Amino acid sequence: MTPEPKAGTGAVTKNKKVNSDFTGLIEGEKKECSHLDLSKIFNPERIAVIGVSMTNQFHPANIIYNKNYYGYECETYGVNPKGGELEHRRIYRSVREIFPGSRAFPSA
After folding, report:
1. Interatomic CA distance for residues 73 and 46, integer angstroms
2. Complete domains list, the chain, with CATH
3. d(Cα 53, Cα 78) in Å, to the nearest integer?
């Protein structure tokens, strides 16, 4: 007979108790994270800053955009629904305009 799980204690699977923290680990097991490659998150090749203001140079998105544009060796794109130009740099209307035909941005 399989014991019934108690609320907040996790489920019981084949007489092994699964942790209730939703990691899917069996109680007592350790999770190895050495296989995760986070370099693309912390060292991206491209950055798109969405919400760049065309009228307020101190808008938080503009600060982030300029910091990334001048501070990192990666392609930096500003995005504003109106599009246009900011400090002689093109501002795109959408991320799709930056990467046309990309499958990474499904249409709504």
Report:
1. 9
2. 1-34 (no CATH), 39-98 (3.40.50.720)
3. 9
Determine the pLDDT at residue 73. 85
Quick: pLDDT tens for 20-56: 555 555 555 655 656 778 888 888 888 899 999 999 9
Q: What is the DSSP letter of 100?
A: T
* Contact call for residues 70 and 78 (beta carbons, < 8 A): no
* pTM as predicted: 0.59
Using DSSP bridges, classify how beta strands 12-13 and 16-17 pair: parallel, antiparallel or unpaired: antiparallel
Distance CA 41, CA 79 (A): 20
